[in-house]
Amino acid sequence: MPKPMENKKAGMGSADRDTVSAAVEVLSGETTRRGLGRLWPFLGPAFIASVAYIDPGNFATNLEGGARFGFTLVWVVVASNLIAMLVQTLAAKLGIATGRNLAEMCREHYRPWLVWTMWVVMELVAMATDLAEFLGAAIGFNLLFGMPLWIAGLLTAVVTFIILGLERYGFRPMEAVITALVGVVALCYLVEMFIVRPQAQLILESFLPPRFQGAQSILLATGILGATVMPHVIYLHSALTQGRIRTREPGRLKKLLRYETIDVVLAMSVAGAVNAAMLIMAAQTFHSRGMLNIDALEKAYLTLEPLLGPISSQVFAISLLMAGLSSSAVGTMAGQTIMQGFLNFHVPVWVRRVVTMLPALIVIFLGLDPTWTLVLSQVVLSFGLPLAVIPLVKFTSRSDLMGVLTNRRLTGWLAWLAAGMIVALNLFLIYQTIWGD
Q1: 3-class SS at 198?
Q2: What is the pTM of this model?
Q3: Among the CATH numbers 3.40.50.620, 3.40.50.300, 1.10.3720.10, 1.20.1740.10, which is that of 45-435?
């Protein structure tokens, strides 16, 4: 039997062991660390998950949403980010309390036909995710260095393999690299906001009241929701916390959850700010000038330079590249979690990487519109959300599984409200698409 507080040793590097030891000291009260020093060992899982919230799919939906509808959909970004904070906290909680990830819980508690159905849907979601991420990184290489898109795609595959190779050294090096890439993206959009200088009054007016502007805005809102509350990363986040730091003592479980909740709030706040900045930049730069058809990442890049200068376009391309590379690696990790959890079947990560990048390479070689493909991929993600959110809420509300970390009544209500909003928005989109004007 494992000791009350024991972490998986396989694949752990020295940085991992130091992190776990420091976390054990904090949870047991045997530390002299203060402030950030106490929090530091627990930071990481949510920052890996946050990469999926600022991937190239977000670039596509936020840029098109801002260019077409101005500041109208800023409230959608903010609402989606609040839902993401709640959902990712539940995902982290599930892994901590049960020692299982969401896919494993589904396999253990649902009937085989339902498990297989969920696996197929989530595999499609993972492929749609990887399509967006891989295409985005390839477009970033293309914009920065002028190389043909197919060469950029192959280079993306090579760099992603290198990032994934860090897993052999443990979880801490991967967390450090991914967090650094997130930091670069955030810094890029801080620079963009300084260049654009958006009007705060117009941003605030977009919330009064929250609204849409026709079926096309609903499609983009659904894409923003799918790109923000990512179903595949819900599964991944539960896996990142399930064995990172283990304890069964109730008081330490509660303390561990508090620290991981801070991790979620910090990571999702950064991701939410970047998402909002993307849409605001597009609204202030393009919509305010009557340029409503900025529906391609390449077009946005080429248009930014004459409007705001060469620095803005280069910063945009760098942020797109960093987001694409980091999220592509994270997407492959999520795909591994989904397959292993639902089917109890493992494939080498390089096989997974090759299979999931094939759709993106097909899009590139067929000459399909990459940006519209990105937007549609985010809509696919949104339709996969109920199969991640609903089981997550159900499991985290069961006291026989969660013990002292069972959802409180208010948390459960908010979680079910979020799940209902997701389902309702998707049903409304179907209605508008089929029977709307």
Answers
A1: coil
A2: 0.86
A3: 1.20.1740.10
